[in-house]
Specification:
The chain has 506 residues and is an alpha/beta fold. It has 15 helices and 21 strands. It has two domains: 1-224 and 332-506, FAD/NAD(P)-binding domain; 226-329, Succinate dehydrogenase/fumarate reductase flavoprotein, catalytic domain (Flavocytochrome C3, Chain A, domain 1, Alpha-Beta Complex). The radius of gyration is 22 Å and the shape is globular. The two termini are 21 Å apart.
Length: 506
């Protein structure tokens, strides 16, 4: 690999957030460690939440978002998100995204937990992410000034006089290079693959969060990991998601005897906020099923992705109960960023799941994640254009630690530790045990790029979870089961830049 000087911002990541930034910039270099369009966005089933109906307004969507946020949502970020919803949907339609519509041509709007109105825009029932990514990838491929570099892994940020001025990259042969740029935008997604049970694809190893942390950027709310309550529990890795829209269309959570168990837990039963449903299904330990038979013979048409996932393991959702388990699904925490993508480091921007703007607080409202990437991706692009710094053009970075590309053999052990001890319910004892166990594995993990990042992010989650001595939103402590009003604040973390936060002399 060769060193390069880019005359345009580098966007790391090619999901909805990253491609929205690139298209907003019009001139960008997109780096992805797999191929363009891979990642969690493509897997999203639920849809995009937006106040599109005649009985709905952005302020209602904002109120619902704040209501489920466990008291930690940042109001200005929430309003920016919901106010931008209609424009985001219109923009997708303009670039060729085909959404499900009623016979009169209006958008077919679905219902999901926590939403007071039907406002979920879908494509092909439960293939919304795939359709959005198809449209965005097509636009990026057709934009000459957007350079796409596939199968290259960004492994660390490069700083000059405290400003981010590029990234060190590695190919699949382990060769590294320094790529300088006027600005770097991290859109690398979440951390789900740190857990043995997750709906996230193999790419979701927290790379951007780890890179930013090692460079000294502020992190925030790292303890808040959302566990989706209904992943298909038949041994898959990743676990197939059973979209929340199923419960919006009448599916019920039952035990092996067919009795509904959410009715005595929350007034909204199966449509209660995700943290409550996830903890309830977790506590049942294998005796939780989704009964979607009420949807009837149209199931295969309305939910083809779910139908296919069930069929692969010999289940028919039209007549069979579907075994479910919570699974790591989304990180509300991440790189501290405002709604325009700015971080605590000049020259560094963050968008999407790797960023934490406060829009989700301690518990994300269903189907707000794709919307976040679309709305804040466009906003970040405008900010990057206005604020990008001049890239350094001389000098060389200090050598990064010797690492091999890819995933270490010990990664599964880390994932098991995180699920058992830092999962749906935690305690001081479990968190300390996790930290000690991961420390014993660190030497083996950190010889590989993804293991190096996983150790960094796992420690951040554990330390933040230890510091929050209460139960709030997606963070549940068995030793502190109550919510403490004095802790209704966001936790900001910064680690001192280490030897692998690269510097360059210019």
């Amino acid at each position: 690999m060769n060193d390069r000087n880019f005359d345009r911002p580098i966007v790391v990541g090619s999901g909805v957030a990253g491609l929205s930034v690139a298209l907003g910039l019009r001139r960008a270099a997109v780096i992805t460690k797999t191929q363009l369009g891979d990642g969690s966005s493509r897997w999203a089933q639920g849809g995009v939440a937006s106040a599109m109906g005649a009985d709905d307004q952005p302020w209602r969507h904002a109120e619902d978002t704040v209501e489920v946020s466990a008291g930690l949502a940042v109001r200005s970020a929430v309003e920016a998100l919901t106010d931008g919803g209609r424009e985001a949907i219109d923009r997708l339609v303009a670039v060729g995204a085909n959404f499900d519509r009623n016979r009169d041509g209006t958008l077919r709007l679905g219902q999901e937990a926590g939403h007071g109105r039907r406002r979920i825009v879908h494509a092909d029932g439960d293939a919304t992410g795939a359709e959005i990514m198809r449209a965005l990838v097509g636009q990026v491929r057709g934009t000459q000034a957007i350079e796409v570099v596939e199968r290259v892994h960004a492994i660390d940020l490069v700083l000059s006089d405290g400003k981010v001025c590029g990234v060190v990259v590695m190919d699949d042969q382990g060769r590294t290079a320094l790529w300088r740029a006027p600005a770097v935008v991290l859109a690398t997604g979440g951390i789900g693959q740190l857990y043995a049970r997750t709906t996230n694809p193999v790419e979701a190893t927290g790379d951007g969060i780890a890179m930013a942390a090692r460079a000294g950027a502020d992190l925030i709310d790292m303890e808040f990991v959302q566990f989706h309550p209904t992943a298909l529990d038949t041994g898959g890795d990743p676990m197939p998601l059973l979209t929340e829209a199923l419960r919006g269309d009448g599916a019920r959570l039952v035990n092996s005897a067919g009795d509904r168990f959410m009715r005595g837990v929350h007034p909204d039963a199966e449509l209660a906020p995700r943290d409550i449903v996830a903890r309830t299904t977790y506590e049942r330990r294998g005796d939780a099923f989704l009964d979607a038979t009420v949807i009837g013979d149209d199931f295969e048409h309305h939910y083809p992705t779910v139908f296919a996932s069930a069929a692969r393991v010999g289940l028919d959702p039209r007549k069979d109960l579907l075994p479910v388990s919570p699974a790591a699904h989304y990180s509300m925490g991440g790189i501290a960023a405002d709604q325009d993508g700015r971080t605590s480091l000049r020259g560094l921007f963050a968008v999407g799941e790797c960023a934490s703007t406060g829009v989700h607080g301690g518990n994300r409202l269903a189907s707000n994640s794709l919307l976040e990437g679309l709305v804040f991706g466009k906003r970040a692009a405008a900010t990057v254009q206005a604020e990008q710094v001049v890239a350094g053009t001389t000098g060389a970075p200090t050598a990064p630690p010797a690492m091999a590309p890819g995933r270490p053999p010990a990664m599964q052990q880390l994932r098991d530790i995180m699920w058992e001890h830092v999962g749906v319910v935690r305690s001081e004892a479990s968190l300390v045990a996790a930290r000690q166990a991961i420390a014993r594995l660190a030497a083996d993990l950190e010889r590989f790029v993804e293991g190096h990042n996983a150790v960094t992010v796992a420690h951040l989650v554990i330390d933040a979870a230890l510091a929050r001595t209460e139960t709030r939103g997606a963070h549940a402590r068995s030793d502190y089961p109550n919510t403490d009003d004095a802790l209704a604040v966001r936790q900001r973390i910064r680690i001192e830049p280490r030897f692998d936060a690269l510097t360059v002399a210019v």
